[in-house]
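FIELD: query
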Amino acid sequence: MAKKLIDVMDTTFRDGFQSVFGARVLLEDFINAVSVAKDAGISHFEFGGGARFQSPFFYLNENAFDMMDKFREAVGKEANLQTLARGVNTVMLDTASSEMIDLHAKLFKKHGTTTIRNFDALNDVENLKYSGECIKKHGLKHEVVVTMMELPPGCKGAHDVAFYEKVLRNILDSGIEYDSVCFKDASGTSNPKKVYETIKMAKRLLPENVHVRLHTHETAGVSVACYLAALDAGADGIDLAASPVSGGTSQPDILTMLHATKGTDYDLGGLDIEKILKYETFLKEELKDYFIPPEATAVSPIIPFSPMPGGALTANTQMMRDNNILDKFPEVIAAMREVVEKGGYGTSVTPVSQFYFQQAFNNVMFGPWKKIAEGYGRMVLGYFGRTPVKPSEDVIKLASEQLKLEPTTKTALELANEDPKKTREYFVKMLEDEGIETTEENIFIAAACKEKGIAFLKGEAKINVRKLSQMQNETQKSNKGDKKMSGNYTVVVNGKKYSVQVAEGSDADIKIEPKKEKAPSKPQPQVANSAGGEEVLATLPGTVFKIVANEGDKVKKDDVVLILEAMKMEIEVVAPKDGVISSINVSQGDSVENGQLLFVI
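FIELD: result
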């Protein structure tokens, strides 16, 4: 009896990169490995979409469309190149309008995509209808998705086999046209028994020739068992990655799964273990200079208690590492349990996983439920669709009060189409105002990447990858002695700036002068002084994203003065009282530390 041929999609260059490197890998450092993978017999790749669309613009000073073109050139016309889309978000930071959803499918077809895997984190089928329609309209294959995870212990109401059957039946009843069905577990927390029963249910409901596959991660340590369970239940395809971006927060390794299926009735894509070994050896050499966070290679038994996807986990820990607050990570993960339960059990996958993390982060940094993260708040209020179960009433009330928004029953697409800042015309004007050519690609880049996309198109983007050689150079520079330190510097001590002269030698004449400020000379933080000034300090590390007010402006209590960007959040810093802005002590783009002076009112 012939073995069943199982389709293997190699996720190395999308989910693997995102799960281990936060999607920050330069094209020149991996494109040769793509050709080696092709020579090894791989013909199905995940090559873009998700955060891997934005990361080239944000961190690599590269155009994602150019990357997709070069990838297609490397693998040839016949390969199945797949991308990831978030339903009505596509690859954007927020819900897209109908115009932009259609443009997404059109451009991804133009730039080499064969298949788009289309999911909604809330499993709200309304969010899959129009996006799926556009995918098929532009001649792409549509892989419709049911998203999975395990609920924290003691929780119930969603994410069991009955729930997934309901979602799948809703997809079938909706009339959405599809070519394949994927069950996607981005946190890797589903247990093998549930996976087996879910795939069995799907094979029973779907027509016999429909391709069914499972996607999972190794984060909780059960991925290989889940894949074997899925195959035994009749799955036709699975997703795997190549070392060094496999296992841990990523997909299981191709070699590992080839070993796990020895002696079974399954043939993984006809792949030869020696050729795959050659491919993985080559890839390791190509990526050897990239810093791999230790948490990216770890399996965590506590992840099912607070489901955190691999791609989001490493992206968040890297941001916390950059901001010197990585020590808070265990507390944030622990706080996620309550956040998931009160949020309505949306699947912990982008963007909902980030909403969960942001809210848990706020609960740790500002106190439990003192500050509702905007994404999380809008989710519980219904602005991204219907959650699997109704969120906690007290959280809905808090979100409504803090965000000054009423709950909505409109669909996410209806809301996006009503928003004048989500129209094609709006993004065309954004480009025209900056003197940028209004090609369809540029329009979509502006829509998907906002200000950072405009910065890229203006030639102002910077490369921000973590390579061992660069880290060593920085360490060496810091250890070279005082000669490099001589000169004038500005330092911040307890929120105050000082101009400092540093000279060579232990007996040198060093002069330190307080830097003159427009603010009162000695205001106490958050307390009015004799001159009527009150300092406002940063409550967490971040970057000054935007300055809204100017020095001399009159503001009311709670008016936004500036916006910090931290942990993928835009955090509004507001006036603590009515008054006049006497000084703004930071500039747009500045990195700020916890406790640093931002402005004085």
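FIELD: remark
The first helix runs from residue 12 to 21.
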